[in-house]
């Protein structure tokens, strides 16, 4: 299905000053949002300045400086926007109009704030911010709207790149489906591998840029499917080429291609924010989210007795209790859990009846006794719902723990491999029945876990896990049947191994998911996000055996456990420090939180858990961690220009330390090693250097927070940022390579021309 780029970002919010950009634009990515933050801050400062009878020269100079800074920044911003328009003819007209509007608005703001040289800024002979506040507001609105449009259009280019990359992957997949010789397959698969790497990079960046956590989780799920299916596609296709008349081999291959196409389509749906006609994006409500909403409504009666009807509340409870039937009707729920859930469901109905009775009386007569009775009824109803929530959580998680423990030996998979090699079709049929039973158990486990997952991203992960078991089970069966029919076939044996590894990997992921669900329930790390990214191997070969991942064995994990624990403690310290900042959108905080998430995923690796499965994944994560650290150091340099001169040397010294440590980590992560011992030494070095960086950050963040508060308390404003550097504008003709073009024409280049604006706080 051909998909066209659509608007992916914009502005839909307004400030207290009455500012608001185009209501039809919605910001969906962090890069666009962060680019707009300094501009909004500057303009809000101008709009919200306090009108005083006497204005000091310092105040007038500050206002003029802000106005000039806005105009200069907009001028440079527009220059980049116009260069983007020239490179992308289909957007040229829209981009040009938005650039003209932005330039005009910037010039208007500069004129209205040109007050420093006037003896009487409010004089009728010269229109200024003091005499025409409405004009400033209009110009500010136009500026925000036009700048946002430019950013949205630039973002469309990123979307177009992803769609183009997807189309290339699809076209090559069609060729792979039709090949009839090994030689042709090897050539095309080599191209396919390179295209998949490009698609992984583009979608990985997009995933981390998305604001919506549900979309981010869906993107992660789709990319995980594509990652695993790439190896499946290789072995399934080779098996089909070796055994062209084998029906089970064809079914196996077709299943992989179908799943990859669905995953590619879902990525594009997320990126373009579109869904097939008639398809409902909303998944059925979970018990957790239903209970949360129900309790909010019940507790709201304390403030307002008339804001909802009793029918509304009764319906909400009915929906929750209907969902508990997923537990009580399940063959895998224990008798004890089933009885407790039924008892609590009955009690919940009784508590609601009592609540409604007191509530109706309180509406007619608000006496002290009735209000006390209402409070008791609210507390009892909420307590009952909490007990129901605890019971379904216990039922789901205990079932999951038992199943994962029971299936940890992978006996059915081992038996399928043995009987397949023996060519024992009867035994293979017997074990495929057992695998089908196991699949149904695990799918049911995922459905029940979704009800108690606690967050929408975890709900999506549960849905993805269920789908993985449902799809991978039949694929293992078709691969096993193929091997049984051709027991001497090495490629058929390898193919079955690949699908079995995918099943084992999903079981391992379920163990981590179960821990995360328990963490959310117990209030631990509920908001902690592990950084997700596909590995980035250097060169892709048609024979992917050369890239076979390396995992740490038990002994190596034990050696590195202490380092991992130290890393874990540092991420907790880091999270505590970032929570102390009033401005959670601060660039320093954002980079710090990102690095903490990455360090946490590296800690999970030391335990043999998490999304970093191999040493290659870890090294790639370490590279990205170091890059993020360099960005944080740049943010510290920018921040140092705004603090007092006495504090600046210490901050710069720490920033230089950070840069040096990140460079060392990057060198270590990129170093080429061979052999098990050398690989483990590299793993140890990467985690050690990551720990050292985190130790420094845990000292740096409190320092920055202290300096920020000191500056605010001192004089109500930060020092202005330095002038724009001309070397940041590189829109010239030397931007020919894809890497340079990506850097020059897009959101990132536009960010460079807004984010250094002066932050002047309202006096």
Topology:
Elements: H1 30-47, H2 57-87, H3 92-112, H4 133-178, H5 182-209, H6 213-242, H7 247-272, H8 287-300, H9 310-328, H10 335-364, H11 368-406, H12 411-422, H13 425-451, H14 456-485, H15 490-521, H16 554-579, H17 587-606, H18 615-640, H19 648-670, H20 676-715, H21 738-744, H22 747-752
Helix pairs in contact: 1-2, 1-4, 2-3, 2-4, 3-4, 4-5, 4-7, 5-6, 6-7, 6-14, 6-15, 7-14, 8-9, 8-11, 9-10, 10-11, 11-13, 11-15, 12-13, 12-14, 12-15, 13-14, 14-15, 16-17, 16-20, 17-18, 17-20, 18-19, 18-20, 19-20
Give an overview of the whole structure.
- The protein has 763 residues and is an all-alpha fold.
- Helices cover 72% and strands 0% of the residues.
- The protein contains 22 helices and no strands.
- Helix 11 runs antiparallel to helix 13.
- Keywords: Cytoplasm.
- One of its GO terms (cellular component) is cytoplasm.
- InterPro entries: Alpha-catenin/vinculin-like_sf (IPR036723), Alpha_catenin (IPR001033), CTNNAL1 (IPR030045), Vinculin/catenin (IPR006077).
- Pfam families: Vinculin (PF01044).
- Belongs to the vinculin/alpha-catenin family.
């Amino acid at each position: 299905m051909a998909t066209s780029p659509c608007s992916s970002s914009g502005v839909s919010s307004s400030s207290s000053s009455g500012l608001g950009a185009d209501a039809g634009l919605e910001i969906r990515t962090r890069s666009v949002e962060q680019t707009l933050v300094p501009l909004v801050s500057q303009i809000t400062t101008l709009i919200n300045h306090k009108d005083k009878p006497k204005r000091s020269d310092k105040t007038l100079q500050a206002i003029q400086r802000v106005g000039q800074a806005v105009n200069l920044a907009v001028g440079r911003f527009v220059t980049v926007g116009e260069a983007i328009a020239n490179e992308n003819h289909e957007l040229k007209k829209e981009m040009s109009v938005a650039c003209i509007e932005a330039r005009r608005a910037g010039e208007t703001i500069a004129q209205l704030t040109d007050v420093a040289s006037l003896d009487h800024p409010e004089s009728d002979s010269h229109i200024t911010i003091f005499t025409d506040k409405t004009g400033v507001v209009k110009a500010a609105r136009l500026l925000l709207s036009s700048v946002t449009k430019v950013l949205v259009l630039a973002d469309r280019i990123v979307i177009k790149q992803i769609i183009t990359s997807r189309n290339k992957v699809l076209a090559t997949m069609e060729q792979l489906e039709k090949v009839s010789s090994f030689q042709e397959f090897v050539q095309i698969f080599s191209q396919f591998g390179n295209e998949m790497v490009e698609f992984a990079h583009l979608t990985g960046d997009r995933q981390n840029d998305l604001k919506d956590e549900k979309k981010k989780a869906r993107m992660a799920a789709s990319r995980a499917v594509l990652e695993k299916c790439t190896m499946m596609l290789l072995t399934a296709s080779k098996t089909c080429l070796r055994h062209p008349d084998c029906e089970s081999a064809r079914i196996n291959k077709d299943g992989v291609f179908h799943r990859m196409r669905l995953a590619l389509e879902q990525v594009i749906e997320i990126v373009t924010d579109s869904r097939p006609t008639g398809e409902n994006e909303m998944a059925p409500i979970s018990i957790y989210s239903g209970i949360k909403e129900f309790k909010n409504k019940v507790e709201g009666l304390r403030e307002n007795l008339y804001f909802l009807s009793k029918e509304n509340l009764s319906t909400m409870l009915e929906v929750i209790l209907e969902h508990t039937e997923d537990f009580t009707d399940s063959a895998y729920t224990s008798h004890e859990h089933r009885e407790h859930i039924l008892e609590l469901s009955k009690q919940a109905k009784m508590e609601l009846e009592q609540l409604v009775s007191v509530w109706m009386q309180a509406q007619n007569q608000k006496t002290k006794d009735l209000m006390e009775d209402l409070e008791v009824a609210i507390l009892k109803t909420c307590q009952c719902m909490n007990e129901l929530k605890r019971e379904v959580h216990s039922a789901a998680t205990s079932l999951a723990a038992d199943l994962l423990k029971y299936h940890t030996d992978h006996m059915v998979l081992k038996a399928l491999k043995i009987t397949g090699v023996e060519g024992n079709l009867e035994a293979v049929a017997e074990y495929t029945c057992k695998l089908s039973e196991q699949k149904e158990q695990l799918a049911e486990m995922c459905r029940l876990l979704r009800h108690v997952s606690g967050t929408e991203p975890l709900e999506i992960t549960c849905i993805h896990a269920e789908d993985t078991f449902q799809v991978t089970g039949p694929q293992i069966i078709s691969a096993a049947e193929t091997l049984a029919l051709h027991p001497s076939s090495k490629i058929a044996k390898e193919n079955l191994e690949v699908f079995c590894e995918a099943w084992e990997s999903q079981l391992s992921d379920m163990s981590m998911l179960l821990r995360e669900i328990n963490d959310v329930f117990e209030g631990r790390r509920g908001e902690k996000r592990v950084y997700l990214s596909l590995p980035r191997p250097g060169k892709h070969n048609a024979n992917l055996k050369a890239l076979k991942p390396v995992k740490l064995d038990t002994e190596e994990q034990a050696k590195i456990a202490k380092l991992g624990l130290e890393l874990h403690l540092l991420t907790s310290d880091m999270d505590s420090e970032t929570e102390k900042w009033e401005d959670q959108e601060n660039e320093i905080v954002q980079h710090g939180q990102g690095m903490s998430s990455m360090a946490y995923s590296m800690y999970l690796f030391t335990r043999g858990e998490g999304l970093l499965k191999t040493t290659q994944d870890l090294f790639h994560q370490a590279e990205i961690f170091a890059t993020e650290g360099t960005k944080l150091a740049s943010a510290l340099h920018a921040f140092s220009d705004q603090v007092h001169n006495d504090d600046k040397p210490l901050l710069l010294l720490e920033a230089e330390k950070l840069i040096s440590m990140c460079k060392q980590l990057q060198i270590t992560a990129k170093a080429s090693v061979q052999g098990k011992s050398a690989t483990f030494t590299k793993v140890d070095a990467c985690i050690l250097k990551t720990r050292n960086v985190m130790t420094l950050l845990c000292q740096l963040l409190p320092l920055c927070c202290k300096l920020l508060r000191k500056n605010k308390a001192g004089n109500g404003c930060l020092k202005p940022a330095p002038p724009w550097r001309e070397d940041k504008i590189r829109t010239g003709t030397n931007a020919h390579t894809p890497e340079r073009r990506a850097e020059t024409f897009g959101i990132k280049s536009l960010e460079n021309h807004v984010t250094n604006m002066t932050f002047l706080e309202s006096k």
